[in-house]
């Protein structure tokens, strides 16, 4: 079957990397951003992000192609294409677990929880809100601007989407498919963020036994509340443990030194290859263990023989959130809606593959623009908002002292 041929993924990745490299040459603002950001402490992870986000695009492209030909929405028959989606998400969860647990271990009780909360809000929502608006407008456009649900029910749908759930909007069947349902992962991310201070109280700050019990109850309550509509799966949450384990691993200089050796790089690639080819699902014990082995080596700074170092790959990593969030909508427009206008049949291989190639290039261009003009300003706005909050608090404290 054509849709199981790994060469499709290889060509798509090459197109994405070439597009990113051309953008770096053509757009000085991108080059300046990379130069300004410099080599981060976890540069290898920055590079890995780019591969993962684009892998989810390839995964959903194959699912879309199969759907167009069969009318069935299901995982690809190829383990490799199935894991490009699932495995990439599992590794994204490991990255989240690693970065924030590392920060907790380094800062301890000095961790700035206010800054953490503000940064997460201004990281997730500036791009998500315009995407959500486009989804709602698209639904009403397809339904001739007719409100089919009651105002109260429609308000509930808006609230649900604001919390990253994906109920059908205005009775439009499977509304979430307009964006390939990608926001399901954000529910897990939000749970991790909200549970982090409680988890820190249990495993890092280590208060009294009563405090520990209350925190565990709080974590369980969060688990139930966030999973109210679509229950959070424990084996999905296990992915974060791989990242948390890596946070402890990189604090051991001898382990880090070994992880940067040639042998470690070979082991990492073998582990990843086995996880992506021998298993059809990512969220079970063996593939998670294999991907955790891969991840701790990358987190220790191994560049996988230079594969994570190029500036084009680093740029793909910078725009990974845009790539992840926007690719489903782009696929829906280009592969499912545009063909109706152009009177072409994307079920045909000779039509679908060029359309997928075009989507790959457009995705990198669009994601670069949204990063520069939505994500980055959003991040900066979060910093300014945090400063405003702190200044307001300082002013209030000063007035209280003066009043005394």
UniProtKB/TrEMBL annotation:
Keywords: Acyltransferase, Membrane, Transferase, Transmembrane, Transmembrane helix
Stored InterPro entries: Acyl_transf_3_dom (IPR002656), Acyltransferase_3 (IPR050879)
One Pfam family from the record: Acyl_transf_3
MF terms in GO: acyltransferase activity, transferring groups other than amino-acyl groups
Transmembrane segments: 6-27, 48-68, 80-101, 122-142, 177-196, 203-223, 235-251, 263-282, 288-308, 315-335, 355-374
PANTHER family recorded: ACETYLTRANSFERASE, ACYL_TRANSF_3 DOMAIN-CONTAINING PROTEIN
Organism of this sequence: Pseudomonas frederiksbergensis
BP GO annotations: polysaccharide biosynthetic process
Protein name: Acyltransferase
Gene Ontology CC terms: membrane
Domain Acyltransferase: 43-366
């Amino acid at each position: 079957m054509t849709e199981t041929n790994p060469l499709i993924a290889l060509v798509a990745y090459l197109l994405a990397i070439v597009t990113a490299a051309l953008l770096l040459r053509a757009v000085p603002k991108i080059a300046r951003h990379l130069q300004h950001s410099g080599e981060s402490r976890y540069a290898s992870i920055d590079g890995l992000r780019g591969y993962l986000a684009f892998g989810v695009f390839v995964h959903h492209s194959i699912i879309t192609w199969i759907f167009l030909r069969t009318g069935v929405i299901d995982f690809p028959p190829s383990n490799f294409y199935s894991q490009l989606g699932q495995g990439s998400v599992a590794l994204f969860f490991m990255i989240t677990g690693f970065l924030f647990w590392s920060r907790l271990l380094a800062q301890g009780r000095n961790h700035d929880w206010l800054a953490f909360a503000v940064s997460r809000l201004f990281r997730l929502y500036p791009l998500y809100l315009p995407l959500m608006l486009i989804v709602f407008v698209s639904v009403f456009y397809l339904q001739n601007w007719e409100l089919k649900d009651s105002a109260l029910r429609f308000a509930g749908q808006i609230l649900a989407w604001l919390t990253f759930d994906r109920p059908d909007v205005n009775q439009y069947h499977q509304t979430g498919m307009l964006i390939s349902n990608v926001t399901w992962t954000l529910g897990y991310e939000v749970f991790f963020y909200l549970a982090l201070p409680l988890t820190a109280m249990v495993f890092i700050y280590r208060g009294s036994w009563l405090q520990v019990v209350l925190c565990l109850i709080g974590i369980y309550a969060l688990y139930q509340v966030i999973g109210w509509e679509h229950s959070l799966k424990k084996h999905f949450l296990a992915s974060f443990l791989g990242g948390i384990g890596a946070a402890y691993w990189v604090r051991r200089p001898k382990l880090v030194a070994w992880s940067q050796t040639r042998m470690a790089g070979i082991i990492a690639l073998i582990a990843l290859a086995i996880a992506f080819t021998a298993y059809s699902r990512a969220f079970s014990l063996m593939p998670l263990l294999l991907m955790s082995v891969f991840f701790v080596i990358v987190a220790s700074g191994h560049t996988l023989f230079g594969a994570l170092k190029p500036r084009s790959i680093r740029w793909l990593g910078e725009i990974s959130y845009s790539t992840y969030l926007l690719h489903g909508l782009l696929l829906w427009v280009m592969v499912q809606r545009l063909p109706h206008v152009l009177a072409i049949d994307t079920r045909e291989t000779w039509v679908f593959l060029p359309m997928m190639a075009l989507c790959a290039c457009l995705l990198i261009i669009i994601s670069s623009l949204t990063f520069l003009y939505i994500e980055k300003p959003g991040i900066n706005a979060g910093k300014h908002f945090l400063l405003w909050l702190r200044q307001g608090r300082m002013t209030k404290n000063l007035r209280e002292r003066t009043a005394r």
